[in-house]
Specification:
The structure is a homodimer of 438-residue chains. Chain A contains 15 helices and 14 strands. Chain A has 438 residues and is α/β, with parallel strands linked by helices. The two termini of chain A are 33 Å apart. The N terminus of chain A is likely disordered. At the A-B interface, helix 1, strand 1, helix 2, helix 4 and helix 5 of A face helix 1, strand 1, helix 2, helix 4 and helix 5 of B.
Chain lengths: 438, 438
């Protein structure tokens, strides 16, 4: 997957005898293996997709404002690309839940879930998550990434002769989980029900696992959940949905798009995250008691790793309870998203027309995308990280904008003006030009 | 890996049409796929290795005492199996570092490192870790598991034609990383330098990556680090060491066994954890700037996941700084370990004779190991989780005891008496019997 990017291969022999044998003043040894790594980095730089992380310091009382730490010192900026979609990571009650738990139970779990790390808050958190999704049980992982990776691979290994059918736009963590399983898998074209059906049909009487998402992170579109459930029923397939960009945000209690669409009970496995709309860290699966117990018992990425700290679990628990009753917060979120879209349309920016809170503004070139992002940050104090390959396909580089309920009208107006200036400065294509060209 | 445990296969067809179509009162659908999961669970139960997690609530001011939550309510117990080896997760300064950061910066990072999640504390933490290990750079992951899994697989993919040589006792996370890489790999017998050398020789002029540990978690023994570095020099191999059970505990500044042995500068990659002796959560790699930058740029398990929260990073940073100057704490730790070993020897218990803080007391049978653990907990208020397959090989089931600097003489004495009683009750073999039989 990565190896093909290495165009040139350094010549052997590999390691000159540079290691210092003096135990008193050991210098850092220049390893000849670094040639490989330098080579890999050069490839990225040549392709203008070497990533420079923006160092920021969030400030609870000012969110979505934050400090940008750069060479000349800290500078106030406005965050427009956070996945803390509701600002729950800055909610006073969520913070105090973490503080209280840390003071009471410490900063770590001290072990795997099996070996001394099964603390009371994480047990309570799992009960809350099961309840949120109307399932018998839930299981918490270190991250949503790990939940997908070890979850999908373990489920597939426990179902003899299973075939996985996986949406082409699935997140890397799902792709890795599918690959790790080692079972037969087929990719269906994104949201293409006909293609999915033909693959289901072709799998005959074998067990089948359909793996897909509700909200796709980078395009901001939504999967046809009900239709996929209908196909699953017809072809007796098991369903696994990733709702990480939807939990907290959609449905009457924030359980996700499946709740909003009234089909949550039809999904066998719901995967979610505590690290986005719930403002904390961690991922989870929810489903039947037997399924969850089997993953708990067999998944290496769950068994052999330290449990999340009690302080994280308590913060997440508090956040979920607030968000379950957060209809007004979700309404405000959608209102600010709508206002942002309207303002960007006024500026004639080439947005993807999404039904969600994710607003991709297309640039289509890695260099320009980075330059636009840099100008937004340095000139306008607006932070929107450029999204490039491998997160999105080459040629679809973009700015991905995520309004929160805490972005106010003045900030939306400032965003619109700044993007307009940047688009003019770089002479980037506008939406009407894009439409005219189609 | 898991599939072979499924002895019987449920019969098709798989999914009766049980899904409720009523959107008003959706019941939890009994999925026919549950047959597979139930089957997998039955296998575990038949083999007496179905795991029941012990629900505990740690109490900062009383550590190593904690509360055990069971059917009849909470009950005070003493923890004897925590990997919070130094009790740093309960250190007042570490807790206050988390509290201050949570109040200042919130409970989450809000994004991946690239997309708005690169907060100031995690940058500072990486600088501290690089300094701790005398390396140019370090990179923090969600967990030590993820560091190994995505770290090893990514490094191997970036070195064309590499051969991995992996110690037979390596942790599951390293095994998964080696497997995921997809490259040619050979397992050398545990700590067997001759075997390793023969494999190095056989690999000829190809690049080679030696993957091993310093302290092996379950047997408590130590790898021959210097000898492995010598072989690496001779055969021009790159070295990757897992020090998760050693960082904080060994070496003048707690950088691990490699520091203690004066060979830290000879290792190309040092992997460690923030979740054990440092008392928090997370894992890391330390090494050359180019190597770290390449992993940062290519590792999917790093790129596509939410960053650790600022509050975790600040707590870890505080803990590391304390532990770097913690010579007295480490001395006290070793003293309590020595006293515990002496007391268990008095009781003639069948301990593995380890050079580390890990004290495995052998039982050799899954049922009895669980029963012994249960009796320790319910009768004596002593919590030592039974360790069974797949964490250790079948027939080597054990109690794994980890004294901390906070276990006092009275608690050590109580442990000795309790184990003595349990060994008598179940008529378990003593050390002298074991030696006599050999």
């Amino acid at each position: 997957m990565i190896g093909h990017l290495l165009t040139a291969r350094p010549t052997a022999p590999l390691r000159p005898n540079l290691r210092d044998k003096n135990p008193i003043m050991p210098p850092i040894p220049p390893s000849s293996y670094d040639v490989y790594f330098q080579n890999a980095l050069d490839t990225l730089k040549q392709e203008a997709r070497y990533r420079v992380f923006t160092e920021i310091e969030r400030q609870t009382h000012l969110y979505p404002q934050a400090l940008w730490h750069h060479a000349d010192g800290p500078r106030p900026i406005t965050l427009w690309c956070s996945n803390d979609y509701l600002g729950q990571g800055h909610h006073a009650a969520v913070i105090e839940a973490m503080v209280t738990a840390a003071r009471k139970m410490g900063t770590g779990a001290g072990g795997t879930r099996n070996i001394s790390g099964n603390h009371q808050p994480i047990v309570a958190l799992e009960a809350e998550l099961a309840s949120l999704h109307g399932k018998e049980a839930a299981l918490v992982f270190t991250s949503g990434y790990v939940a997908n990776d070890t979850g999908i691979s373990t489920l597939a290994k426990l179902i003899p002769d299973v075939v996985i059918l996986s949406d082409a736009h699935n997140h890397n963590s799902m792709i890795e989980g599918v690959r790790r399983s080692g079972v037969e898998r087929h990719i269906f074209r994104h949201n293409d029900l006909d293609h999915l059906e033909s693959l289901l049909k072709a799998a005959g009487h074998r067990p089948k696992l359909i793996v897909f998402e509700s909200v796709y992170s980078m395009d901001g579109d939504i999967g046809p959940i009900k239709d996929i459930c209908d196909l699953a029923d017809r072809y007796q397939a098991m369903t696994y949905i990733d709702e990480v960009h939807a939990v907290g945000l959609y449905g009457e209690h924030g359980a996700g798009v499946a709740e909003q669409d009234g089909v949550m009970h039809r999904l066998d496995v719901i995967e979610g995250t505590l690290g986005k709309a719930f403002g904390c860290l961690g991922g989870y699966l929810a489903g039947s008691a037997a399924m969850i117990d089997a993953v708990r018992s067999y998944a290496p990425g769950f068994i052999f790793t330290t449990a999340l700290p009690p302080a994280i679990a308590e913060a997440a628990l508090c956040s979920i309870r607030l968000v379950r009753q957060g209809q007004a917060l979700r309404a405000r979120h959608q209102a600010q998203v709508a206002k942002t879209k309207t303002r960007l349309k006024q500026a004639d920016l080439p947005m993807l027309d999404t039904p969600t809170h994710i607003i991709p503004v297309m640039v289509g070139n890695a260099d320009t995308c980075k330059a636009a992002s840099d100008r937004l940050l340095t000139l306008h104090g607006i932070y929107i990280q450029p999204i490039n390959y491998p997160t999105v396909p080459r040629g679809t580089e973009r700015l991905r904008i995520t309004p929160s309920p805490l972005h106010d009208e003045a900030q939306i107006e400032a965003l619109g003006q700044a993007l307009d200036e940047v688009w003019t400065h770089f002479n980037l294509p506008r939406q009407h030009a894009k439409v005219a060209a189609e």
